[in-house]
Design brief:
Number of strands: 14
Distance between the termini: 43 Å
Family: Belongs to the DegT/DnrJ/EryC1 family.
Pfam families: DegT_DnrJ_EryC1 (PF01041)
CATH superfamily of the largest domain: Type I PLP-dependent aspartate aminotransferase-like (Major domain)
Largest sheet: 7 strands, mixed
Protein name: Aminotransferase class I/II-fold pyridoxal phosphate-dependent enzyme
Oligomer: single chain
Organism: Lusitaniella coriacea LEGE 07157
Radius of gyration: 23 Å
InterPro entries: DegT/StrS_aminotransferase, PyrdxlP-dep_Trfase, PyrdxlP-dep_Trfase_major, PyrdxlP-dep_Trfase_small
Shape: globular
CATH topology of the largest domain: Aspartate Aminotransferase, domain 2
CATH architecture of the largest domain: 3-Layer(aba) Sandwich
Strand content: 5-15%
CATH class of the largest domain: Alpha Beta
Structural class: alpha/beta
Number of domains: 2
Length: about 425
């Protein structure tokens, strides 16, 4: 593996690649680079599936993954599917959600689309600026006679205020479910995250620290709901042949994806250990830097440490989050904006609800601040130190950077 170029030459902002210097890294460092477990074990499983010639339709690897993941996530039942979005859509339909469902705008667009795709109106709720999760105190004023549910999102794997959400749902007779795409391996008050609400929906996309190439699952403690979801994800087929007893679609996970999931589960603790070490190193290097807020995890709970999240306050740094992204990209650090610009600012919701931004002040602020840095197996301690030195440099010379950026912008125009 090629060693990173030292940042020792980056003594001033003029040395940055953004201004014509050499990039710190010769190859791009990605956010969400796929983790690969024991490759030999994965190939053994794939060969087993090929030898059996049972590649789909609830094969033995899918059945094993469902059992093992249910145990890991803390729920009684797990239904594995082809991806997280289909998992969301089927869970929403199985819960008989209709009319309006309250959901945060600060989430991946699939959370909203899974509702709108089924002619359910996503009613966007503001977030708590501290947790980045849906703000329970903003929910009740959004409830109307058409409201049938609340869909919370455990952003960064940090659980929503589950207790308060459950209280609101009971009070107003609403269904409560959770998009737990970020929350594999996380806990709330000592209980793993699959224990809460009517259902928890997971994504096993390749960019997640636990992946099945592409996949997802619904975890629930409700046996009737689990059986309904099983029917719906397989065209409504009941026991026996040619026995369709319910309306359904094709949401099945294949055996090759399940083989990857089982191999990922074998190594999941190793993946989390790497994430934790990276998180601790980033925290040590970046905490206390003016204008850079480092998002932390509750050490009394289980965390997967999957995301390294900063908030950039341009009033202190003198540069914006987007300018920092450009600077990092030039150094081959492919930092990302999450979840910019918010679902409410994307189509069709921007056209459907043109004034929603006025109701979501905290969401609007956060989407302009949040920055995600590379972690997982994409980096090591040395690379993290180099990334942090870049950020330390631009913050330290923020005033000088601002002057240089303004001067170049004026020359362009």
């Amino acid at each position: 593996m090629a060693k990173s170029k030292s940042i020792s030459s980056h003594q001033n902002i003029e040395d940055l690649a953004f201004f014509g210097g050499s990039p710190t890294f010769s190859k791009p460092l990605h956010v969400g680079r796929p983790n690969i477990g024991n490759r030999e074990r994965l190939l053994e499983r794939i060969n087993d599936a090929l030898d059996r010639k049972w590649l789909s339709n609830d094969g033995p690897f899918v059945q094993e993954l469902e059992q093992r993941f249910a145990d890991y996530a803390g729920g009684k039942y797990c239904i594995a599917m082809c991806n997280g979005t289909i998992s969301l859509e089927i869970a929403i339909r199985a819960l008989d959600l209709q009319g309006e469902v309250i959901v945060p705008s600060f989430t991946f667009i699939a959370t909203a689309h899974a509702l709108q795709w089924q002619k359910i109106t996503p009613v966007f709720c503001d977030i708590d600026p501290i947790t980045h999760n849906i703000d329970p105190n903003s929910i009740e004023k959004l409830i109307t006679p058409k409201t049938t549910g609340i869909l919370g999102v455990h952003v960064w794997g940090r659980p929503c205020n589950i207790d308060l959400l459950e209280k609101i749902a009971r009070k107003h007779d609403l269904k409560l479910a959770f998009d737990a795409s970020h929350a594999v391996g996380c806990s709330h008050q000592g209980q793993t995250i699959g224990n809460f609400g009517e259902a928890s929906i997971f994504s096993f996309h390749a960019t997640k620290f636990f992946n099945t190439f592409e996949g997802g699952a619904v975890v629930t403690n409700n046996e009737q709901l689990a059986e309904k979801i099983r029917l719906m994800k397989n065209f409504g087929f009941g026991p026996g042949y040619d026995n369709v007893i319910y309306i359904g679609t094709n949401g099945k996970m294949n055996e090759i994806s399940a083989a990857m999931g089982l191999t990922s589960l074998d190594s999941i603790n190793d993946f989390i250990d790497i994430n934790r070490q990276n998180y601790q190193q980033y925290r040590q290097k970046l905490s206390g830097i003016p204008g850079i807020k480092f998002t932390t995890y509750n050490e009394n709970e289980k965390n997967n440490y999957q995301y390294i999240i900063l908030e950039v306050d341009d009033r202190e740094t003198k540069f914006t989050r987007d300018e920092l992204v450009e600077i990092l990209h030039a150094e081959n650090v492919l930092a990302r904006r999450y979840f910019f610009p918010g679902c409410h600012q994307m189509e069709p919701y921007r056209s459907y609800f043109p004034n929603t931004n006025l109701l979501l002040p905290e969401t609007e602020k956060l989407t302009r601040k949040v920055l995600s840095l590379p972690t997982g197996t994409a980096v090591d301690i040395n690379k993290i130190n180099e990334i942090c030195r870049i950020i330390q440099l631009v913050v330290k010379q923020g005033k000088k950077l601002r002057e240089r950026l303004d001067r170049e912008n004026s020359q362009k125009h």
